[in-house]
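pasting for the record
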Amino acid sequence: MKKVLTIAGSDCIGGAGIQADLKTFSSFGTYGMSVVTAVVAENTFSVIEIQDVTSNMIQKQLEAVFDDIIPDVIKIGMLGNIDTMRVVSEFLQKAKQNYKDLKVVVDPVMYAKNGAALMDIKNMNSLIELILPIADLITPNIAEAQHLANMKIESKDDIKKACKIIFDKACKNVLIKGGDSFDALDILFDGNNFFEFESPKIKTTNTHGTGCTFSSAIAANLALGNSLKDSIQISKEYIYEAIKNAPNLGKGNGPTNHFHKFFKGE
């Protein structure tokens, strides 16, 4: 059984963060593990409070996992502060030296779906310096890509330009998610070529945790041995169905249905 580790924050309503990641890993038949970086008191319409886990505790969680069950792929989500970024970066640099096939997917979580900040933007340079070099794939949305590339994105050409800028900051592959702004068009840049991934647009507010879920699906499919492009395409289809079959919960941006393969939302 393939093993996938998420390093991310906890979402108490279960639609995003490590809860969404673990559900997604399970839906693809992979074994999910987690290192919690922060506890977030949030729901579908607000982020109430965030408490970061200490860097020492994050280190101990990483050691506990790697001393026992070595993951095939790691998905990184919310890293709320510089100390967290530093301990994750240092640990995974060594892990990638010891386990040559270990892949890392980074979803640079900066905002909740309701717009609340989950990372202080002043930490952006540390994210670029410490985390991007260990990423085999980074999956920013438009807002996150604008910060990473330090430019405004208003067209498909802008997305491609931003991909190149982010790639030059030490990434191996960059996937910018178009989301609502670009009709669910995602663009991958591998350093040489661009690849576009499209799906039908769904008019809905049930989009809580879609970024977490999408990147986790890619991580699970990479663990299963699929190519990067196939992993993205499979994950694109998966998130479309997860949104389409959402259970319509909550007062704001509702969660998706991670287990739509097994039961429909309505």
